[in-house]
Design a protein that fits this description.
Helices cover about 50% and strands about 15% of the residues. It is α+β, with helices and mostly antiparallel strands. It has three domains: about 5-85, no CATH class; about 120-230, Butyryl-CoA Dehydrogenase, subunit A, domain 2; about 240-370, Butyryl-CoA Dehydrogenase, subunit A, domain 3 (Up-down Bundle), CATH 1.20.140.10. The longest helix is centred in the C-terminal third of the chain and has 29 residues, at about 270-300. Bound molecules: flavin-adenine dinucleotide (FAD).
């Protein structure tokens, strides 16, 4: 496949580059500062209003109906300009597109796409992470409303969310994954408490716990049919595991480039071990870039992704952690030094857990791709 820009793609790239010169919010990296999370809502809206967000989604929900190449151009140019990445809401959009009714899509998707409504994903619970089907949050029908009670944890963006996509048990009498339904729950109401969870790198605004105590949710806020929550969750997590969805390949390329420039400025300051760590990060970042390019090529040929998302997630995790190791090795951890690189390293630890742990991805690769017997 030819990865060069077609004339209209080149024109789009030039327009975006010019727009970024005026509109780059110059936020610190997501892994290093709460200021990033505080500014993300405004950044999403600004990107959308500029015509650079939602490139591939249908026009009726506020997208532009273009090919995935435009998302790749956006990711590349944002990373090259040191601008924040595209806010990652794609997995929610894809989940609602696939499982929501026409009315549900009309109600919820435009606000997610244009950034006016901020959403979080209430799947995990204290005793239901990898074993998500064991979740205990329950929703009981009362007239034309459900009453929701439960405890969600590790809920990204819950700090500033207007809505939460909540998985809850609506039928306790069927096998566990068949009794789950999905709801769009408005976050600003009595009975919902959000408690921030500080991360090891000092970030306090990225995620939290959310407690639901007798919260009333209109029955028509259910996304999909009763019992369709598990299928929706699988759609959402499979999209969450794609590196290109998150624009991560471009971000790693930029981090590695910054580290290479740092070494080039004072090459005698670095020993062979540090250079080896950096070399490994360069190799991993390039490998991920090529893998993402192949996925893009497949997507343009109409190939839909399946369990291969687990492989993508593993590759992305290896890359993030190789880049984090290089950041720590080359950037240093002296208390006197700027701790940005240390924070990049620390954030990399989360990558092997969020969106499904590396052990679970390996199980999925073994069972669904290699067709080995179930563990
Ligand atoms: C930064 C970050 C953001 C997140 N954002 C969200 C969010 O927005 N919404 C949300 O709902 N959740 C979110 N999560 C939660 C995430 O999905 C869970 O942490 C993850 O699924 C693991 O669940 P757990 O933490 O309960 O660990 P557990 O499931 O308790 O796992 C503990 C350990 O046991 C291993 N293990 C468990 N079962 C098996 C098995 N069958 N085979 C082999 N090993 C196994 C795991 O790999 C892990 O090492 C986020 C997590 C992080 C770190």
């Amino acid at each position: 496949m030819d990865f060069g820009d077609a004339p209209e793609e080149a024109a789009f790239r030039i327009r975006l580059r010019a727009w970024l010169e005026e509109n780059n919010p110059r936020l610190p990296a997501s892994s290093t500062d709460d200021e990033y999370w505080a500014g993300q809502r405004a950044w999403h809206q600004s990107l959308y209003d500029g015509g650079f967000f939602g490139m591939t989604w249908p026009m009726e929900i506020g997208g532009q109906g273009l090919s995935s190449i435009y998302d790749v151009i956006v990711d590349e140019e944002l990373a090259a300009a040191g601008a924040p990445p595209r806010p990652s809401v794609g997995y929610l959009v894809e989940g609602i597109i696939e499982h929501g009714s026409v009315e549900t899509k009309r109600r919820f998707l435009p606000g997610i796409v244009n950034g006016r409504d901020r959403w979080c994903q209430g799947f995990s619970e204290p005793d239901a992470g990898s074993d998500l089907a064991a979740l205990r949050t329950r929703a009981e029908l009362d007239g034309d409303e459900y009453i929701l009670t439960g405890h969600k944890i590790w809920t990204s963006y819950s700090d500033d969310a207007d809505w939460c996509l909540v998985l809850a048990r609506t039928d306790p009498d069927v096998v566990k994954h068949k009794g789950i339904s999905a709801f769009a729950v408005p976050m600003h109401q009595l009975g919902i408490e959000q408690r921030p969870l500080p991360m090891i790198n000092g970030i306090t605004k990225e995620f939290g716990e959310v407690l639901f105590e007798g919260v009333r949710v209109a029955a028509d806020n259910m996304i999909g049919a009763p019992g369709e929550g598990w299928a929706l969750a699988m759609t959402v997590v499979s999209h969450e595991r794609e590196p290109q969805q998150l624009g991560f390949a471009g971000r790693y390329k930029k981090l590695v480039k910054d580290l290479v420039e740092q070494v080039r400025r004072e090459p005698d300051e670095y020993d062979a071990d540090q250079l080896r760590d950096l070399a490994w990060a360069i190799v991993e970042a390039d490998m991920l870039r090529l893998h993402v390019s192949r996925r893009l090529s497949e997507r343009l040929d109409g190939v839909t992704h399946g369990p291969g998302g687990s492989l993508d997630k593993l590759l992305m995790t290896w890359t993030e952690q190789a880049v984090g190791n290089a950041a720590l090795s080359v950037g240093g951890i002296s208390p006197a030094a700027d701790d940005t690189w240390l924070k990049v390293y620390l954030y990399g630890r989360a990558q092997s857990v969020m969106g499904g742990t590396s052990q679970i991805q390996r199980n999925l690769v073994a069972e669904r791709i290699l067709l080995l017997p179930a563990s």
